TrEMBL record, chains A, B:
The lineage of its organism: Bacteria, Pseudomonadati, Pseudomonadota, Gammaproteobacteria, Enterobacterales. GO terms for molecular function: hydrolase activity, acting on carbon-nitrogen (but not peptide) bonds, in linear amidines; metal ion binding. This is Zn-dependent hydrolase. CDD domains: M20_bAS (cd03884). NCBIfam families: hydantase, PRK09290.1-3, PRK09290.1-5, PRK12891.1. Binds 2 Zn(2+) ions per subunit. Pfam families: Peptidase_M20 (PF01546). SUPFAM superfamilies: Bacterial exopeptidase dimerisation domain (SSF55031), Zn-dependent exopeptidases (SSF53187). Keywords: Hydrolase, Metal-binding, Zinc. Its cofactor is Zn(2+).
């Protein structure tokens, strides 16, 4: 068993990096706060006798050698970045639980056949740089290195510039190596485990996602002198689309999700009819056909804006198919949970995770622990220390089983 | 007659302060660009032999003494601030035409009975600091000095701090002095004069305005894990209100205007259901009863949000009644326009102007010149040199008549 109290302490320490007044964190990818977190992780790894390697897209790798270096390694990890006004556990819990597993193995002098590889992936959230899972996407060959390094945040700063600014533009190639298996531990970010009183979720699949960027361009005009019928009001067009997106999501309930999360008005002044709105739309569904229909419905909604005399420019920037995790990895987790006496259930993730991309290059599965009321991407996100310990224990036993086979 | 070419040159020079790539200006009140403009105006006034006085809210006053110092002065002026991505003439045209009038009088050695007082009012636009006409409002007793100095921009910087930062926190009291008459020259910001081929508009009245700040608070949630029916999506509620505001404006066409010009989402991240939207609403109408009904309709729209489980907080931050300008001042302008052979028509302003507040403390009226296609609060705002000259000539003769009576 892991040292649950020590794990909790590392989580509390990490939560100070980017802490917000309301108890959450804003630790955007490659920000100064993310650097603090990365430096601390390196420091802890070094204290525990490990070396921390940085690749060209800033991913951090900590390797615990096994007895048999020619065997493919077993990987675990997650991400240290957060949403703006995000929670204390989304992502970083999986990284620090992995560190706790390594520390426990060291203390107990437990050797494994295969190497264990702990990773902190860059920019999983897709908040500062879109899309999500950008760096695990590069590592697994979904995105080119050039594409990822050139992505820009809202201030026009590229991933490449941001990596250099915090000293995390490493030299190692961001390219998958042979892996025997991969396991990501994460908070559920939904209410099911807590509501049903079940200890852990074993994730067999994840919904597909499609992300869009849309710009509506009308004509900025004086709010006092421009009659209503002469306006080309980009905001009113946007409002129609936002409500259409919500209707699309409701049509595909319970499994579908449709969200407008971000919008930027130009010039965004009280007495100016908005001339332009840039906004995002995202759809999720476990079924790719349903995603096709949601996407078609979005285009239909954009087509009805005609009378408003707006120019519509829409691009799909992220399209990731629903995935099924590896049954062998799922079985490993089920078995370990049974041995530990943890109650379990099989789940489908509505959130995207680095593991979804890892699944393309290695047999992969995920473990979920409950989170209070399912709240995530919110400063109020919370877990209990006992849940944290359960997840880390389960990760420990799962990794041991996989690393010794 | 004024020197139209010289006036045009000062306008072109001024347009470099805050110039945008698309040919407009972003010269927000009390910004570094506004300071450049203010310094240049002071410099030009000093060159012409005048002194430039700054009051405690940053208003700039340039006085040309008359023969009879005990008589009340005649005032003219407008504002040098702009909208974000605004035009080259809104406001500053009236200030620089006033300067051209003073220069012309000097050159010709023309004396007046009364002093002429040229003003550059602080923060007319209401873009950086809401509400509009803030400093003329203080000068005329509508707002207290304390209220105005404490207004904050979107970054939390107060008017007081911004004044100090650019060195324009003067010491003279911002309090009206006795005035014989006041005339503001401005571009129309609407299409009527150009469309009808009329040289100048003589403004007899201005619409009333009501400005609101509204915050809708729901609950920020994960876009992938939060089912549609569990969401408290502040953006979708906002979208409903924005469309309701547009419908209200259409109900009150042709005279009514209803605009949502600004909105800020929190956290404004692609994969987060928006937890909060702060936005503004403004209504305009020449009839106060109509404004009452528009306001009631807004509250009715907010009341229908009930099912969305959002908290609504709405405040009215600006309520300014429709006004009628002084018939005597209007007659002065009409007479001067006739003498100059300019075609004219009587108009109602949909925009607010410093003159609307001056009207409370002195007999006041306004002159409009055409602007291309009525475009304003837009980088594409444009006027022709001939229009500019017409307006300044008319201002010259109007001021002469008033200052000699
Ligand atoms: N787990 C998580 O919140 N990932 C961010 C990407 C997504 O929105 O699915
Ligand atoms: N003239 C002008 O654009 N004033 C700004 C205040 C308003 O929006 O009416």
């Amino acid at each position: 068993r892991v040292n649950g109290e020590r794990l909790w302490q590392t989580l509390r320490t990490f939560a100070t990096f980017g802490a917000t007044p309301a108890g959450g964190v804003t630790r955007l990818a490659l920000s100064a706060e993310d650097r603090q977190g990365r430096d601390t992780l390196c420091h802890w790894a070094t204290e525990a006798g490990f070396h921390c390697e940085i690749d060209e897209i800033g991913n951090q790798f900590i390797r615990r050698p096994g007895r048999n270096p020619q065997l493919a390694a077993v990987m675990t990890g997650s991400h240290g970045d957060s949403q703006p006004l995000g929670g204390n556990y989304d992502g970083i819990y999986g990284v620090l639980a992995g560190l706790e597993v390594l520390r426990t193995l060291n203390e107990r002098g437990i050797e494994t056949e295969r190497d264990l590889l702990l990773v902190n992936w860059t920019n999983e959230e897709g908040a500062r740089f879109a899309p999500a899972m950008l760096a695990s996407g590069v590592w697994t060959g979904v995105f080119s290195r050039e594409y990822a390094l050139a992505r820009r945040d809202g201030d026009g700063i590229s991933v490449d510039e941001a990596l250099r600014a915090i000293g995390y533009r490493g030299t190692a190639a961001a390219r998958a190596i042979p892996l025997h298996a991969c396991f990501e531990l994460h908070i559920e970010q939904g209410p099911i485990l807590e509501e049903t009183g079940i200890d852990v979720g074993i994730v067999r699949a994840a919904m597909g996602q499609r992300w869009f960027e849309i710009t509506l361009t009308g004509f900025a005009a004086h709010a006092g002198t421009t009659p209503m019928d002469l306006r080309q009001d980009a905001l009113c067009g946007f409002a129609e689309v936002a409500l259409a997106v919500e209707r699309i999501g409701r049509q595909f309930a319970d499994d579908g999700r449709a969200t407008v999360g971000m919008a930027q008005l130009t010039p965004n002044s009280r007495n100016v009819v908005p001339g332009r709105v840039f906004f995002t739309v995202e759809f999720r569904h476990p079924d790719a056909n349903a995603l096709d229909r949601m996407e078609a419905a979005l285009h239909a909604a954009l087509a009805t804006l005609g009378e408003r005399r707006l120019t519509v420019s829409a691009g799909k920037i992220f399209d990731y198919a629903p995935i099924a995790f590896d049954p062998g990895c799922v079985a490993h987790i089920e078995h370990a949970a049974g041995a530990l006496g943890l109650t379990q259930r099989s789940m489908v993730s509505g959130a995207g995770h680095d593991a979804c991309y890892l699944n393309r290059v290695a047999p992969t599965a995920m473990i979920f622990i409950p989170c209070e009321k399912g709240i995530s991407h919110n400063e109020a996100e919370n877990i209990l220390p006992a849940w944290s310990t359960n997840g880390a224990d389960l990760l420990l036993h799962t990794l041991l089983a996989a690393a010794n086979e």
